Amino acid sequence: MKIAIAQMNSTPGAFDATVSAMAAYGRRAEELGADLLVFGAPVLMGPDPMGLAANEAYLLDATRALGALAEQIGVPALVPYTSNITGVPTYDVAYVRDGAAVPISLTSMLDAIGPGSVDAVARGIRERLDADARLGDAGGQAARLIDPAVIEVGGAHVGVALSLGDLDAFCAGDLDADVICLMPVDGYDTDDEMTSLAPAVSDGCFVPEAADADAWLAVAGASGAYEDMVYCGGSFVMAPWGELAAAASSFGEELLVCDVDVRSEGPLAEPVAPPAYDRATLLWRSAATSVRDQVNKRGLSGVALVVDGSLASAATAAVAVDAVGPLRVHALVWAEEDALADARELVRNLRIRDVDELSARGVEVAAEALGGDGEEGVVSSLVETRLGTLAAAGELLALSCA
User: How many CB atoms lie within 10 A of CB 130?
Assistant: First the structure.
């Protein structure tokens, strides 16, 4: 079979634009003869729709978006989304084919229960939600409804997983699949190398999982920032014996298409070398991606920040310039003596042209007039207030060194 992975960046809630982009990937995948198209977890609704999954109007829009996608896409596709069919926001995956979008959670429960009552299905859903509630949800994200599942696509058994932990069911032999489609809900974590996806393969990650599951791995990552979570791309397809058949770039949008021979025992004729894992580079690019998407997805003009001669403000300014370019950065210079010279030099070196300077003495006088006697907290509050005013007036994203 031929599997396609759409490594996308999107704006959750902008359903018309998102569906249009997803349908375009679908047409390209169909032209290339793909049997299955896999989308990253946050593409349609984000990794955590910030409580919007409890909003009936939002859910209706999302349902309509899935329906519109089903009408426009000609290749079977897996589309993660968040539903509220049980009264609690829950993760799910829609299997889109033949003009319809079918929730895998429902089909999995029906398959497990067999022909029977709807009450039994509802009871199974309630039991899952009760278990999730007992585990706790400190992060406030949606609970995961579905267990890892297996569906049939073109005669092959395809496993569906939403987290790295879901692979355990396949590795332990609880479920058998020819291909496992992993669509991680969680983004990049600098303390968990595997969340970088393809670069982690260079250090041996995912190889034991593919071997234990005795299945091909098709790992679909998104590329971009979704609120405070960043996805760094790196989608890939791995053979059961650990060779990479295909890999996408980090921090880029692309359609990855790969032939998968579930009967082959290897080796691959032309394996792909995994990209190197560089934690510092991934961290920097994640920070820049976060700033860029926060600006662009909110429709802002650029970034406003304070440059005070410290290392922290220098790093923040450099990330901002890398993210949106020097012409979209507004620097508020505020420092004393040698630090002021350093701040001015940094602004020049980064080619930031939109610059305001605050008189350090003037800020101290203002703080004293407010009864602060020049205390650092009052001074910092005045600077932050000035930064907020600049950001609001220029429709800019205010960044803090914190």
Answer: 10
DSSP alpha helices (H): ranges in 73-196? Answer: 104-113, 118-135, 167-171
Burial bucket for residue 204 (CB in 10 Å: 0-12, 13-18, 19+): exposed
Omega within 30 of 0 (cis) for the link into 267: yes
pLDDT band at 380 (very low <50, low <70, confident <90, very high): confident
User: Do residues 250 and 152 share a domain?
Assistant: yes
Interval 263-274: pLDDT, tens: 998 899 999 999
Ramachandran region, residue 136 (left: φ > 0; alpha: ψ -120 to 50; beta: rest): left
355: β partners: 331
325 and 253, same structural domain?
no
- What is the domain extent for residue 309? 300-398
Ramachandran angles phi, psi of 244, nearest 5°: -85, 125
Backbone φ and ψ of 54, nearest 5°: -90, -5
> Which pLDDT score is estimated for 83?
77
Rounded-to-10 torsion of CA 127, 129, 135, 137: -170
pTM of the model: 0.87
- Same domain, residue pair 104 and 196: yes
DSSP 340-373: HHHHHHHHHHTT--EEEE--HHHHHHHHHHTT-T
109-159 per-position pLDDT tens digit: 444 444 444 454 445 444 544 544 444 443 444 554 567 899 999 889 999
> How many Cβ atoms from other residues are within 10 Å of residue 324's Cβ?
22
- 354 lies in the same domain as 274: no
Shared-domain flag, residues 185 and 331: no
Same domain flag for 18 and 107: yes
Q: Are residues 310 and 249 in the same domain?
A: no
Q: What is the number of domains present in the chain? A: 2
Please tell me the number of Cα atoms within 13 Å of 390 on its side-chain side.
24
388/138: higher pLDDT: 388
- pLDDT reported for residue 140: 41
What CA–CA distance (Å, rounded) separates 30 from 164? 28
Neighbours of 114 (CB within 10 A): 7
User: CA torsion 189→192→196→201, rounded to 10°?
Assistant: 180
